[in-house]
Structures are given as C-alpha cells and as structure tokens.
C-alpha cells in the first residue's frame, strides 16, 4: 500500500517575534484527516509538524508520497540540506544554529524508517487536497483561539 498525504501549516502572523498561534493539518487521500494547534509557533514549525504527524500515522517501512506546498520542507530533502547541517554541527551556511532542529531531527528519523517521495505542489492553486489541508490548518487556529477570527 502507498499512502498519499497532503500536509500544510498555517500561522496567524508569521512575522511577529516570539511566535504566534498556528495550526497544522494532514489529509490522507482516501483516508483520515488530522489537524492540531500550537499557541506560539511559526509557519515553518507548523509545516514540519504537519509532515511529522502524517508520517506518525503510517507504519515503519510504509511507502508514503508527501505532497506539500512548503519549499522549506521539500527542498530540505530533495537538496539534502542535512548533509551540510551535520557536517557543520547542525549549523547553517552562515554558522548559526539550524532553526527547528528538534523537528528536523524527528522528521528525519521518521523519513529514514519509511520510503518517502516528496512532491511540491503549488499552494492555493485549486488542488482539492492541498486546499483541504490549508482549510483544516486555519480552522485549527480558529478553534485553538476559542472560535475567534484568525485574521
């Protein structure tokens, strides 16, 4: 069996210092949907969390096709950013600590235990599964804020 899953993360005001309310979602094609909320986060953390949660809902050894509109997530794997990060002691090219190391390390472990294919999709371009993941992530923020508007 091959799992096809669409993931997305959202953040209320990604530019605010210290993080803002965020949501994540993963939608399995012909399967379940999952979403969640974090009161103080960033969009990148939510994008990573969405993929982590998706992979946690598959078994080790599974074949998983991850569809994401996050260049941040997709490029890390397609361009093997990990090789440079590890060579530099988990520092980026500027010598600063890699952001979101905790999530990257968790995600990498989950990926190593599965056969993952990465597909970059264009966000807000009418793909019904990508749109559904976005809708769920935004709704998770709204619900996490007690039903308040997310904008």
Helix content: 25-40%
SSE succession: EEEHEHHHEH
Cα gyration radius (Å): 15 Å
Strand order of the largest sheet: 3-2-1-4-5
The number of helices is 5
Largest sheet: 5 strands, mixed
What is the second-level CATH architecture?
A: 2-Layer Sandwich
**Number of structurally distinct domains:** 1
Cα(first) to Cα(last) distance is: 40 Å
Which regions have little confidence, pLDDT < 50, spanning 5+ residues?
Answer: none
How many beta strands in the DSSP annotation? Answer: 5
Instruction: Enter the CATH topology name.
Output: Nucleotidyltransferase, domain 5
- The amount of beta strand, in percent, is 25-35%
Can you describe what's shown?
The chain is of the alpha/beta class. It has a single domain, classed as Nucleotidyltransferase, domain 5. Helices cover 38% and strands 26% of the residues. It has 5 helices and 5 strands; from the N terminus they run βββαβαααβα. The protein is globular. The N and C termini lie far apart (40 Å). The mean pLDDT is 93. It is an enzyme of class 3 (hydrolase). Belongs to the RNase H family.
Draw up the topology in text:
Blueprint: E1 2-11, E2 20-28, E3 33-41, H1 43-56, E4 63-68, H2 71-78, H3 81-87, H4 101-112, E5 115-120, H5 128-144
Parallel strand pairs: 1-4, 4-5
Antiparallel strand pairs: 1-2, 2-3
Task: Please give a handful of descriptors for the protein shown.
151 residues; alpha/beta; Nucleotidyltransferase, domain 5; five-stranded mixed beta sheet; 5 strands; metal ion binding; ribonuclease H; nuclease; magnesium; endonuclease
């Amino acid at each position: 069996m091959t799992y096809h899953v669409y993931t997305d993360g959202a953040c209320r005001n990604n530019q605010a210092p210290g993080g803002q309310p965020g949501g994540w979602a993963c939608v399995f094609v012909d399967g379940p949907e999952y979403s969640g909320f974090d009161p103080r986060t960033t969009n990148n953390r939510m994008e990573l969390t969405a993929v982590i949660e998706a992979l946690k809902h598959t078994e080790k050894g599974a074949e998983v096709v991850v569809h994401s509109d996050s260049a941040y997530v997709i490029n890390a794997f397609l361009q093997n950013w990990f090789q440079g990060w590890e060579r530099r002691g988990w520092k980026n090219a500027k010598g600063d600590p890699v952001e979101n190391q905790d999530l990257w390390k968790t995600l990498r472990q989950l990926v190593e235990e599965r056969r993952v294919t990465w597909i970059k999709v264009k966000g807000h371009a009418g793909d019904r599964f990508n749109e559904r993941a976005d809708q769920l992530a935004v709704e998770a923020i709204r619900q996490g804020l007690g039903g308040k508007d997310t904008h």
